[in-house]
Amino acid sequence: MSMELTYPYSLEISPTQTPEGHFNWAIRERGKLLQRSDRVFPSERIAREKGEAELERLFTTRDKRR
């Protein structure tokens, strides 16, 4: 997903401190934390997939409210 398609939201993937080698995601709206994962994922790819799915859910929910 490119930034133009997700503005004003951004998806951030970051490694965790414990357990080492795992990742989590955070969704930011104009830089402010909106939502983050409550689980850790064994790979960056899986964390990105889960984060993108949640971002898609946010867009779907936002469109239904309009």
Index terms:
elongated; 29% strand; 2 helices; 3-stranded antiparallel beta sheet; alpha+beta; 66 residues
Question: Residue share in helices?
Answer: 25-40%
Oligomeric assembly = single chain
Strand content: 25-35%
By secondary-structure content and strand pairing, the structural class works out as alpha+beta
Task: Write down the overall geometry.
Answer: elongated
Largest sheet: 3 strands, antiparallel
Residue windows where pLDDT falls under 50 for at least 5 positions = none
Number of strands: 3
Based on CA atoms alone, the radius of gyration comes out at 12 Å
Structural domain tally: 1
The tally of helices reads 2
Question: How do the strands and helices of this protein lay out in sequence?
Answer:
Blueprint: H1 3-6, E1 9-15, E2 23-29, E3 32-36, H2 44-65
Antiparallel strand pairs: 1-2, 2-3
Model description:
There is one protein chain. The chain is of the alpha+beta class and 66 residues long. The chain has one domain. It has a three-stranded antiparallel β-sheet, covered by helices on one side. The longest helix has 22 residues.
Task: Give a quick summary of the entry.
The chain has 2 helices and 3 strands. It has 66 residues and is α+β, with helices and mostly antiparallel strands.
